[in-house]
Amino acid sequence: MSGKKLLASPLGLRQLSSLPPSIRHSIVRLQFLPQPPSILTLRSLSRSSSSSTTPDRIVRPLVPPPREGSGPLLSRRPDRELPDLPRPIAVWAKTLPVFILVITLCSLAIFNYEKSSSSTVSSILYALRTNIHARELLGDEIYFGSKVPWISGELAPMQGTINISFWVKGTKGLAKTRFVAVKRRGGFFETLEWSLKTEDGRELQLLEMEGTRDPLEGQSFD
Q1: How far apart are CA 214 and CA 222, in angstroms?
Q2: Which UniProt key words apply to this protein (predicted)?
Q3: Predicted TM-score (pTM) of this structure
């Protein structure tokens, strides 16, 4: 009991000198040992640490990104999640067929323009204008049947094959002309068919008519 009282209250020099040497040394050691912190000290430390934290260091959950139809954003927040980007595969799956279709149409338009502006087609149109039988059927001013003519078939003079058909019209009516020719020895073409067929079914074989001149007569594409 005496030892506990001495530890609870500070000891003076006179009290220590009256004790035996062994007890005196042990009491001095116990007084200078570091004491554990009390509960009040821990509470004060926790309050000071919580008051020292700034609002910027507080970790908050991210706000979900806006969705379609949610309306305009009235404020910008740094804690908002980024929206999901569309997958490239899904985008290409929608745009690739459109791209292929546009390329195909452009290629067909270029090839058709080359056919319509070729010397073979120009020779056929000139021969129709000067042919008396074609003028009796179609009238004067024979030209393409539409503003954007479409030349069907194969037109490859360098390879020796011509098999085309297209619509022509004059002041009297509209008809479809077909022209077939092949290359013979020497590089000259031989016309196999040249005809006119009207919308009502009437057909005129121009090569069988008297006075018809071959549009490719004397022409060579070597």
Answers
A1: 19
A2: Membrane, Transmembrane, Transmembrane helix
A3: 0.57
Q: How far apart are CA 24 and CA 11, in angstroms?
A: 10
- pLDDT tens-digit series, residues 40-49: 555 555 555 5
DSSP notation for 39-76:
HHHHHHHHHHHHHH--GGG---PPBPPP-TTS----S-
Measured between alpha carbons, how far is 175 from 205 in angstroms, rounded to an integer?
Answer: 12
Residue 55's contacts (CB-CB under 8 Å, 6 or more residues apart) are none
Boundaries of every domain in the chain: 2-32, 114-208
Is 176 in contact with 166 (CB distance < 8 Å)?
Answer: yes
pLDDT in tens, 177-189: 999 998 887 778 8
Query: What is the DSSP secondary structure assignment for residue 80, as one 8-state letter?
Result: B
The total of other beta-carbon atoms located within 10 Å of residue 70's CB is 8
Cα-based angle 154, 160, 163 (whole degrees, multiple of 5): 30
Which one-letter amino acid corresponds to residue 91?
A: V
| Burial (Cβ within 10 Å: 0-12, 13-18, ≥19) of residue 13 | exposed
DSSP 86-143: PPHHHHHHHHHHHHHHHHHHHHHHHHHHHHHTSHHHHHHHHHHHH-HHHHHHH-SS-E
Which is it for the CA torsion 214, 217, 219, 221, positive or negative? Answer: positive
